[in-house]
Specification:
Distance between the termini: 35 Å
Helix content: 25-40%
Shape: elongated
Low-confidence stretches: none
Structural class: alpha+beta
Order of helices and strands: EEEHEEHEEHHHEHHEEH
Number of strands: 10
Mean pLDDT: 90
Radius of gyration: 23 Å
CATH superfamily of the largest domain: Hsp33 domain
Bound molecules: zinc ion
Strand content: 25-35%
Oligomer: single chain
Largest sheet: 6 strands, mixed
Strand order of the largest sheet: 5-4-1-2-3-8
Length: 228
């Protein structure tokens, strides 16, 4: 699972997106003032000053989090900063957004091989960066991948992998909501029941799925849980 979260002091107070290895995506955006419809563009105008965190949670192994300041108006620059700091891989990014889509181009140097000539590598990196920099938002949004790559890098031998499909899928479930309630403990849950008039409503903030727990559901859930 990889997630990107940014928090700032701008009209958009938080954005978060995550993707797992099945290519299931979900995301959320939170506004400082829920009635506001911010019109700005770029990280600076929308999120303001703050931090961006990228978290990688492998199925096995340790969770890794890299945090970078949002010191540029461009999401691409903030992420380039992350790659340089955390992965130590030279990375450049270009994004484009349209009415119905956003697309991106990422150029990344793989770890250097022992026998590689560093001068030659540097030269390739610079040339590829210069070529990629000529990409326009229209090309990013409208051109099929193969055409775009050909237009930018036709002097190089290229290998195009099969595209992978991404889909929106939320990982919430009634069971997870029940676990969250259970972890609150009996006192807290009984207080919630009272506040919400004899039932507890849980809305998933990612997909708006609605879970209702009645007093009887809560009793079954907490049945074995002793009073604190
Ligand atoms: Zn959900």
């Amino acid at each position: 699972m990889i997630s990107l979260q940014a928090q700032g002091d701008g009209p958009v107070s938080m954005v978060m997106a995550e993707c797992n290895h099945h290519r299931d995506l979900r995301g959320i955006i939170r506004l400082a003032d829920p009635s506001d419809r911010p019109q700005g563009r770029g990280v600076g105008e929308l999120l303001g000053k703050g931090i961006m965190a990228i978290t990688i949670e492998p199925e096995r192994g340790e969770r890794y989090q890299g945090v970078v300041p949002m010191d540029s108006d461009s999401l691409a620059h903030c992420l380039e900063h992350y790659f340089l700091q955390s992965e130590q891989l030279k990375t450049r990014l270009w994004f484009a957004t349209g009415e119905k889509a956003c697309t991106g181009l990422m150029l990344q140097a793989l770890p250097t091989q022992k026998h590689a000539d560093p001068d030659e590598n540097r030269e390739h990196w610079e040339t590829l960066g210069t070529l990629a920099s000529t990409v326009t938002p229209e090309e990013l949004l409208d051109l099929p991948h193969a055409d775009l790559l050909y237009r930018l890098f036709n002097e190089y031998q290229l290998r195009l992998f099969e595209p992978g499909k991404l889909r929106f899928k939320c990982s919430c479930s009634r069971e997870r909501s029940a676990n969250a309630l259970f972890s609150l403990g009996r006192d807290e849950v009984e207080l919630l029941l009272e506040e919400q008039g004899g039932k507890i409503d849980i809305d998933c903030q990612f997909c708006n799925q609605h879970y209702v727990f009645t007093a009887a559901d809560v009793e079954t859930l907490l049945g074995d849980q002793r009073l604190h």
